[in-house]
Amino acid sequence: MSITTVPEAIRLRLWGRAAGRCEYMGCNQPLWLDSLTKSEFNIAYVAHIVADSPNGPRGHNILSDLLKADISNLMLLCDSHHRLVDKSGLSQHPVERLKAMKQAHEQRMDITTAISPQKNSHVLLYGANIGHQNAKVSYEAAAEAMVPDFYPAELNGMPLGLLNSSFTDRTKEFWTVEAQNLRNLFNEVVRPRFRAGNISHLSVFAFAPQPLLILLGSLLSDIPAGEVYQLHREPPGWKWEFTPEQFEYEIGVPDSNTAPPALVFSLSATVTDDRVYEAMGGKASIWRVSVPIPHNDFLKSRAQARVFRQMMRQLMDRIKSRHGENAKISVFPAMPVALAVDFGRILMPKADLPLSIYDQDISAGKFVHALDVGEKAERSV
Fold first, then answer.
1. What is the model's pLDDT at position 162?
2. Which of 47, 78, 159, 350 has a CA between 20 and 30 Å from the CA of residue 185?
3. Residue 221, pLDDT score
4. Is the peptide bond before 336 cis (omega within 30 degrees of 0)?
């Protein structure tokens, strides 16, 4: 694959189309930088799809001469994949496969580089242990889910989790340590940057026990420009789908408001009334938010999350009007991670009732109090 037949102007155009990265599927290696020493120099190969000679790889008696300087027949490759494509033979790398690689890479680069600066978004990563499962949120997976709607404003994002924590969510110490750590890191990492005007939009990726997710959302409650992403099981990943667009949540209203209010989210799983009564000493006026068939992967689209936020703003005001200004809401969440954060985000510190949030303790087989939001807690930026 000689470049002697390719004019410099064509090679420069190819560099631009490929954004200076290897076009072999799945590689994307920057071709101006040595990956080990970080020294900057040109390590790219301008490769022919149809060889520039009939005797070369994928050579053709007529097309080789016609396409030898045609940009549609050229790929930018790293050394490894340049050698692989040439030596593997026509059976592994036919013309059609290489053209498909080139097209897919250049379309992706075109989409990414065409995003306007207004689509800059800072990535917020939060993970905390769920049981004995360590939750680490991947920056790479988060960045992939954002494009093309937004793109990361900086490398690595802003991590808030307590790394390598020895606590689990089955201990009282866990809630105290994790909640305080989350508040402290938020005050140190996020709050000053918003006050300084350095962040205009926030993309939130969080995977943690639901009381902590609600707390995180409450800390974000005054940030108007932000989006919370959901971790999906099928297909796996954080990227939103476009369906379903039409979606309704079911609201259950208690017959009486004489007992303390309980807000139950039966979204990812069913939370029965008897579990609520057990946790609250037998007295509760239960408000319920549910879907027809609760399951852990029902949340697929931004539209579903938007409907949830709109509905919850109205419901919180409705609960306060029924139970009075001095009430405290006990919350029993079984909900997707994105909606747990969004629930915290819709809270209005000076208007909404304070929350006492419970969590399902698997070892004890019941709900136990985890933490409070709205009392002695910083709730906004």
1. 60
2. 350
3. 82
4. no
**pLDDT at site 381:** 41
What is the dihedral sign for C-alpha 59, 65, 70, 76?
A: positive
Cis upstream peptide for 159 (omega within 30°): no
Alpha helices for the chain (secondary structure H) = 8-18, 63-66, 79-87, 95-114, 139-146, 172-185, 191-195, 210-219, 273-279, 302-323, 337-346
Residue 336 to residue 210: CA distance in whole angstroms: 8
Residue 43: Cβ-neighbour burial (10 angstroms; 0-12, 13-18, 19+): middle
Dihedral sign computed on CA atoms, order 150, 153, 156, 157: negative
Which residue bears the tokens 């139950």? 264
Closest CA to 300 of 227, 226, 242, 342: 242
* The pLDDT of residue 129: 60
Q: Which stretches of the chain drop beneath a pLDDT of 70?
A: 1-4, 115-117, 129-136, 162-170, 222, 224, 245-246, 375-381
How many helices (H) and strands (E) the chain has is answered by 11, 13
CATH tag for 250-373 (out of 2.60.120, 3.40.50, 3.30.499, 3.40.630): 3.40.50
d(CA 287, CA 330): 10
Question: Phi, psi at residue 210, to the nearest 5°?
Answer: -65, -35
- Of 45, 51, 39, the closest CA to residue 18 belongs to 45
CB 128 within 8 A of CB 209: yes
Give rounded-to-5 percent helix, strand, coil for the chain.
35, 20, 45
Q: Is 19 left (phi over 0), alpha (psi -120 to 50) or beta?
A: left
CA 342 – CA 319 distance, rounded (Å): 18
C-beta of residue 18 within 8 angstroms of C-beta of residue 109? yes
What's the whole-model pTM score? 0.70
Q: Cβ contacts of residue 58 below 8 Å, gap of 6+?
A: 48, 49, 50, 51, 90, 93, 94, 95, 98
According to DSSP, the β-strands at 158-159 and 120-127 are parallel
Q: Are strands 355-361 and 366-373 parallel, antiparallel or unpaired?
A: antiparallel
Region of residue 359 (left: phi > 0; alpha: psi -120 to 50; beta: else): beta
Predicted pLDDT at 376: 44
Q: Over the Cα atoms of the chain, what is R_g?
A: 27
